[in-house]
Specification:
Elements (H helix, E strand, L loop, with lengths): L14 E5 L1 H10 L7 H4 L15 H4 L17 E10 L7 E14 L3 E12 L5 E12 L23 E6 L4 H5 L12 H6 L9 H16 L7 E8 L8 E9 L2 E7 L5 E10 L1
Antiparallel strand pairs: 1-3, 2-5, 2-7, 3-4, 4-5, 6-8, 7-10, 8-9, 9-10
Length: 278
Amino acid sequence: MPIKPEAVGALGSPVRRSWTSKDALLYAVGVGAGTQELAFTTENTKDTPQRVLPTFAVIIGGGGVPMDKIGSFNPALMVHGTQGITMFDEIPPDGEIESVGKVTGIWDKGNAAVVEFESESKNVATGKPLLKTRMSLFCRGEGGWGGDRGPSEKIEFPDRRADHEITYQTREDQALTYRLSGDRNPLHSDPSFAKMGGFDRPILHGLCTYGFTGRALLHTLCGGDPKRFKSMDGRFSRPVLPGDALTISMWVDGNTCLFRTTNQAGVVVLDQGTMTFA
């Protein structure tokens, strides 16, 4: 059974997800936070209450997505295309959310299908919306049914130097820490599996690169205050290897930022980035 374009609009069932202080701390370390960010990496530092990185939303959110209604595809030919988050409130160090997801788009790219999902989560303790996640999957070999190709607009970055540039160094064992937040795909840890995928060695999780980028945006544009971080969207364009240096370039206009992330060779690895902040 191939991809089913008629699944657009399909809703999933509500799903609950809880997390602890330790989960939030482990995620922060997994995306490179350290001794200069003790509010995110410790829970018992004097006069420093624990806070949570906004991009932790990609770990706890996204639930309730009706994957069973979109048809079938070869997971070995699927890649994560885009990721977005919207924050309605600051994520607490521990808590529980209830999420409901839906299929928001299925596009025919000819040699591939793009499937888009959205999931909105409410804080169970308060009953109020906490966050929303967006993502798309690029499924090679599943297009060609004659459907709409979907939107093709691209962000035009300003023809000037970035207003801010921040460089973070990833560790060679970065993926081994990040995987403990939930994504145990051996592509990120097993050299033999990575070689089957065409890589010389395991690659870094795309969402880990997303988290590094989110840290740069948070500290540069929000003064490290998660309450000011409102939304972030980007498209994964190239794989990152553990040990790469990541440079996040930002062009700011009011409360909106365009961004992209490059590696040490200047190759764009996270593209078409938009972020809003208060």
